[in-house]
Amino acid sequence: MTTRWSSSPGPMLLKRFSSTYTSKPLPSKSHLHKHIPDSAFPKGYALTGIHVGVKKNTALPDLALILSTSPIPASAAACFTRNAFKAAPVIVSQQVLAAGKGTARGIVVNSGCANAVTGAQGMEDAWAMVKATDALLLPSPVAAGDQGGERDTATSGETLVMSTGVIGQTLPISKILSGIKSQSRATLGSGFDAWERAARAFMTTDTFPKLRARTFTIRGQEYRLAGMDKGAGMIHPNMGPPSSSSSTGQLHATLLGCILTDAAISPRSLQSALTYAVDRSFNSISVDGDMSTNDTIIVLANGAAADGTAAEIDEETDKDAYEVFKEELTSFAADLAQLVVRDGEGATKFVTVSVQGATNYEDAHKIASRISTSALVKTALYGEDAKYVLFLRFLRPPLIPDIVSYRTRPHV
């Protein structure tokens, strides 16, 4: 490579360079999306994904609607970006959760426009999406947390909102609201086709819809978990519960997801389980380390598995049942998070960094994060050159050099 510089005015060629770089073929991802039996999905939810005009391509769905079909509010929990700057949908969803005291009955998601850096108009548009989706819900006789009173729909809502896409542009809100209003309970479904349409409506640069489901049992009662997420670029999340409003100085990313279950669990316990799960799943992945404003993971638990007859899971009154639920949620969240990594933009490798012998989880996480974001490590892995052990010189305490060892093995 040659470089020239001049202080004289006018155009000038600064650099000439040549490259012998040859891109490697991307691995096939077709096996990561598969049909799921209708019986595997949780009871009591209706979904769809439609095109309303946020995206130019009419063949691509850009609006997802997810409703709990029960008139009783579902327990709701969410983890949001800890970035001090938050997009309008993040702020509005936090307000909905606070007003509902950890309950909600709907989720509305648009892709193609992030509704970030949009000021007062962005907030107004996000609330308009909430209200329009609320109108599709069955009438709710009692607001959660109120002593027999009705929810004040003028100052709150029952729908959580997420947006992803281009930053700095306002939503085509009239198209979105028309699309929401065109739907009804009759146009939404509960089988695989409906879930897949909703998952596709999450997508931006994703190459496949990220959708998974599983069943688990607590005290003889079978429950179901199903979820979808999106993300391929700008991935290095650091999310926390709604109270985590300040930036930690770490990186953030664009990642949206929702998990639905027909288990009955108290709002406080659902939030506690989700925070634990996100720390060990979505907050433990990295693709490129870039920053965004919209990260959100939402969980709804409507209790429909036992038709409302099963006892509510609570971490204080039934710790054993809570621990089973927490571990199932964590494992499931990890499955969804790994789909994001496997769909990373330009990714040719799937690598797991395991840290053993650290004093605590936080220290181990810091070490693994530093390794996973190292350009040296990434280029060495891409070139399949084991010299990336050199990354150790960049690590700081709590690492103790005298007792460090490392090894690699093929991922299975």
Automatic annotation (TrEMBL):
GO cellular component: mitochondrial matrix
InterPro entries, A to Z: Arg_biosynth_ArgJ, ArgJ-like_dom_sf, ArgJ_beta_C
EC number per UniProt: 2.3.1.35, 2.3.1.1
Primary localization: mitochondrion
Chain sites annotated for binding substrate: T204, K230, T254, E345
Signal peptide: none
Posttranslational modification: The alpha and beta chains are autoproteolytically processed from a single precursor protein within the mitochondrion.
Site (Involved in the stabilization of negative charge on the oxyanion by the formation of the oxyanion hole): T164, G165
GO molecular function, one term: L-glutamate N-acetyltransferase activity
Gene Ontology annotations of biological process type: L-arginine biosynthetic process; ornithine biosynthetic process
Subunit note: Heterodimer of an alpha and a beta chain.
UniProt function note: Catalyzes two activities which are involved in the cyclic version of arginine biosynthesis: the synthesis of acetylglutamate from glutamate and acetyl-CoA, and of ornithine by transacetylation between acetylornithine and glutamate.
Protein's UniProt name: Arginine biosynthesis bifunctional protein ArgJ, mitochondrial
Provenance organism: Hermanssonia centrifuga
